[in-house]
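Exercise: predict the fold of this chain.
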Amino acid sequence: MTPAMKDEDDWVGTPPEGHHSRDKADPDFWRAAWPKYAMGAGVLVFFITLAVLIAVLL
C-alpha cells in the first residue's frame, strides 16, 4: 500500500460526502423502516391475489 492510498477508516475532520460520523449515525432509523415495507408487501400480495381470482372467476 502506497502512502497515497489510505484506508477509508483513517480519515479525520469533516466526513466525505455521504458519510456520517458515528455520533450522528442513527441505526434505529433503518430498524424501524421494515414494518412499512412488510405492510406494503402484504397489500401488494393481497391485490395480486385479488386480481388473479377475478381473472379466474370471470
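Check your answer against the key: The mean pLDDT is 78.
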